[in-house]
Design goal:
Helix content: 40-55%
CATH class: Alpha Beta
Number of strands: 5
CATH topology: Rossmann fold
CATH superfamily: Response regulator
Radius of gyration: 13 Å
Distance between the termini: 12 Å
Number of domains: 1
Order of helices and strands: EHEHEHEHEH
Structural class: alpha/beta
CATH architecture: 3-Layer(aba) Sandwich
Length: about 120
């Protein structure tokens, strides 16, 4: 089973994600980007990382930028409930992230995207 890390500062989003994807992926969740970096450091089996964009500690792009410097082989995605801004567009163009997803998330879109890149 593919191991996936989901980072979001809202507990309800973490639980919904885990409930919806837990049968298909081994989902690890955290509400703090700094803890997400620790989890990635300690678990080399994680293949996919999905991060919320808007979080208080650091935003999703800042988190993924740090994570990708240490783990360039992992597949990174942003999940956002807001309009797609220039920072997210630049992250896609520069290949920092492979794609962004909108909230409320579409399970099929996320699953199909992950399956196609793996």
């Amino acid at each position: 089973m593919i191991k996936l890390l989901y980072v979001d500062d809202e507990q309800i989003n973490l639980q919904l994600f885990k409930i919806n994807f837990g049968n298909k992926y081994n989902v690890i969740i955290t509400d703090r980007p700094s803890e997400g970096l620790e989890i990635l450091q300690n678990d080399p089996d994680i293949k996919v990382v999905i991060s919320d964009m808007k979080m208080p500690e650091m935003n999703g792009i800042e988190f993924i930028t740090k994570a990708k410097q240490i783990h360039p082989e992992k597949l990174f995605f942003i999940l956002t409930g807001f309009e797609i801004n220039e920072q997210i567009q630049n992250a896609v163009q520069s290949k920092l992230i492979l794609k962004y997803f909108k909230k409320p998330f579409n399970m099929n879109d996320i699953s199909e995207t992950i399956d196609s890149v793996l």
